[in-house]
Amino acid sequence: MKITKSERNRVFILVVFLLIWVLGIGVTLVKTQVFNYGKNIAKVRKQRNRTFSLHPKRGMIYDNQGEVLAISIKAKSAFLSNKNRQESLKILDGIRKKIRFRENRDKNWRALVDIKKRIKEGKSFIWIKRKLSDSEYQKLKSVEVNPDSKSELNFLEEYKRKYPQGALASHVLGGVGIDEQGLGGIEFELDSVIKGKGSKVEVLLDARKRKFSQKFLNRPVPGKDIYLTIDSAVQFFVERELRGAVKQYKAKGGCVIVMDSIDGSILAMAGYPDYKPDRISDTSNWVQKNQAVSFLYHPGSTFKIVLAAAALENNVCYPQQVFNCYNGVFRVKNETIYDDHPSELLTFEEIIIRSSNIGAARIGLRLGRKRYFQGIRGFGFGEKMGIDLPGEEKGILRSLNNWSGVSVAFLAHGYEILVTPLQMIRAFNVIASGGYLVTPRVLKNIEGDRREKIIKKRILSPATVERMTSIMTRVVKTGTGKKAGIEGIEIAGKTGTTKKMRGKAGKERFYVSSFGGYFPANNPKVTMFVVIDEPRGAYYGGDVAAPLFKTIAEKLVIYLNVFPELDKKNEIRI
Amino acid sequence: MVKDSKVDKILISITALLTFFGLIMIYSSTMILAKEKYGDSFFFLKKHLVWLAVGFILFAFIALLRSPIYLDHRLVFVVVFIAIVTLILVFFAGKINNSYRWIKVLGFSVQPSEFSKIAIVLYLAYILGKKLDDVNNIGKLLLYLIPFFIIEILILKEPDVGSFLLIFIILIFMLFAAGLKIRFFFSIALFMGPVLYLIVKMNPEKMKRILAFLNPEEHFATYGFQTIQSIYAIGSGGLFGQGLGNSTQKLYFLPYAYSDFIFSIIGEELGLFGALTVVVLFFVFLLRGLNIAKLSGSKQTYLLVMGLTFLVVLQAMIHFSVALGLFPTKGIPLPFISNGGSSLLSSLIIAGIIVNVSRHRRMVFVND
Prior knowledge:
The complex is a heterodimer of chains A (574) and B (368). Chain A is of the alpha+beta class. Chain A contains 19 helices and 24 strands.
C-alpha cells in the first residue's frame, strides 16, 4: 500500500499544528522565565524565605573586682500563633489562669485587653509575654492546647538582661528595655559597644513552613564586656549608709561619690532614691536620674576651697592674713551677706575653717573677679567633663561680663553658680591629688582594650596644695566638719550648707547639706563627696553630711586598707 | 539481512539522552522527599533504575526483533484483549488517590492505561492501515472501533480523564492521517461536545480544576495551587536556572514534582535553556518519528509509527502546557523523564517499536 500525496499533506498539517504548539510553549517559557522572572522569583522568595534578626548577646558588665554587675542569659518568650480566633481566645484563657502578664494589676488587665484585641484583629503573631522566668515558662508549658487546634502557643528564645546585685549601682548601670536596648546609665552610653551587632538569618521554609535551611546574611559581632571602676563592696555600703541617712533626715534624696584620689576611678556612685535596673521601664524618670552627674545645686561653702586655692595660688593672700568679718553683717554695694556665727577678726585659715561667708566675700573681693573666674574655670566648672554616663549636666557658670558688682562676693561662698556633685568631687580631688585636675571615670576599660585612660592636668602648685590640706584638716579637727573626723586618721574636708530657693518664701526653708573630703590627708587615697538634698530637722552640712562621710570613711579605711603612715610616737607596740 | 545503517541513530540518541536526563532529574527532585520519607535519598532513583533495567531489556528485545510481529493481527488482538482485561482488573485492586489506576504485577504497581495506549495505537494502525479498505466507510469503521470504545470507557471509569482525552486525540490524529474525510471530523466534534460537557458535569472536581485553571490566583489555596507553584518554579529559573539540585519548589510547594510536574523542576533548576532543550528534543523526536513513518513503506507501519510518535510527543506537549498553566492540571507524566515505572516502560516499548520499524524499512521496501 502506497502513501498518497494527500495523506502526506495531512501529516504536514499535523506537524504544523504541533510546531505552532511548540512555539506557543517556547514563547510562554520566555515570557515566564525572562519577562516575568522578577515577579516569579519575588513570589517564590516571599513564600519560602523568612528573614529573622537575631539579637546579639550583650556584653557583661563587671566591677573592678571582677564581680558581675550585668549579664545576659537566655530566656523563653511566649507568643501565640493566631490562626483561629476562637481557639486563640481559648488558649489565652488557659494562659490567664497560669501567669500574670504584668506585675501591676491595672497593667496586667490592659495587657490582656491588648492581646485580645490583637487576636480579634487577626494578627498572626502575638506576643504573650517576653523573657519569662523559669517558673513562668514551666507554667505556660503546662497550658493545655487542643491538639487539633490550629492556633498554638509557641516559644522563642531571647536574651534577658539580669542584674545579679539587684538595685546595686542602679544609676551607673542604668538598664535595658525589652529589646535589650540601653535605656540609661552605662548601658545607654556604651550601648553600641555592649550590644554588638546582631545577625540577620535568612531561613528557607518548605511548604509546610518547616525550616529547610538557613543562611547568615551577616556575621554577628558579640557585644563587648565592660569593666567598671565601681567596687561593688564599696558601692554596697555607700548605698546602705546613704539610704539610712536620707531616711534618718527624711530628706528628699542624696548622693555619695567615692573616688580614687590618684587616678580618678569612681569606686562608688550612689544616688537615692534608687531602683532595680531590670525594672527600669517601670521606673519614673526622676528616680532614674543619676544625681551625681545631673543634680544641680548651689555648692555653698564647699565652694570656698576653690576660692581659697585660687587666692593662695595667685599669692593674693597668705594663711595668716587677717580679715575683718564685721560681726556677721557685711554690705557689698546694695546686698548684705550674713554669717550664722558672727566673728570680728578672722585669719584666712579661720575663714575657711569656720566657714565665714563674709570672710570668703572679702577674700573674693581681694582676689578680684578676673582671677577668681579663671580659678573657677581651672577647676573645670561650667563644663562637661565627658564621663561615660548619660545625663551629665555642665552646671551654670556665668561668663565674666555677665557678673554683677557683687557676683564675686556671692561666688566666694558658693552662690551664683550651679554645680553637680561630680564637679565638686573633682574640685576636692584637685587638692587630694596634689594639684591635678583628674577626670573622674566609671569605665575602667572595654574588653579587648586594656589601656586605661587617665586624664590629669596640674592646676595647683604643691605649695598651695600643702596649705589647703593643712586648712582642710583643721576644718575636720576643729572647724565645722568635726563630725566627719575619725580617730587615728587625718581627714581633710569642707562642709557646705545651701539654702534652696524654693517654695513660698519664708514659710519653709529647704537646704542642701554637703561635705567633701579626702583621706589620709598627708597621703590621700580616697576622695569622697556627700550631698543630702532637703534634710529635715538638722540641715548643716557639718551635722548631716559630715556624719555620713564619717560612717562611710570608717568602712573604707578598713576595706581599702587605707592606713596613715604611722608616726613613731603613735606606733603600736605589741 | 537487516542493515543496521538504516537504524535511526538520532532517535535512539534522543531516547537515551532523555532517559539519562530523567535519572538526574528524578534524583534531584526526590532526594529530599525520599530522605525524609524513606530515610534514603536514592529511594526513588533506585526504584526507577529497576524499571529502567526492565525497560531497556524490552526496548532492546523489540528493537532487535527479526520480524515485525507487532504488525501481526493475532498479536494485536491479544494485546487489545489483555488491555481490556487489565483495565477491568484495576477495579478489583483498590483505590489509590481516589481512582482505580493500578494493578500489582510481581509486586510492582503497574498502570494498565499506560500500556493500553500502545495497544490502541497498534490496533488502530492495523484496522486503518490494513483491515479496512476504505476508512470512509463509517459503518464498518465504527464496528471496528468497538474495542477502542470499550477501552476508552474503562479508562474514563477509573477515572483517568487525561488518558481518555489523550487516546481520543490520538484517534483523531490517526483518522486524519488515514484519510478520513474532513466532514466526519465536524460530526465527531458535534458528538464530543456534549460528551465532554457531561464528563465535566458529572465530575465536580474537574469543574473546579477548570475554574482554577481559568483563574489560578483566586484558587490559590486549592486547585490553583499546583498551577501557580509550577509557574513560580519555572519562572524563578530565569535564563540559566537555580542550578541542578537547587530547586526549592520541590520542598512540598509543588506536589508530584518528580512525575506530573518534573518539567517545572527542569525549568527551575536549568532555566530557559534547559527547558527549551527538552522541548526541542521532543520536537526532533517527532520529526524523526514521522520520517521513519514516511519511509516505513506500508500504511500499517506508517500509521503505527506516526501514532506512537504522537503518543509520546503529545504527552510531552500536554505535560509542558500543564506546567506552564496553558492547560488545566492533568496528571500526565513526561515520557522517558518522569518517575513512574509504567510511563517509562511504555515509553521505551514505543521507542523500541519505532527503532525496529526503522531497521526494517529497506526490507519492507524490497517486499513492496
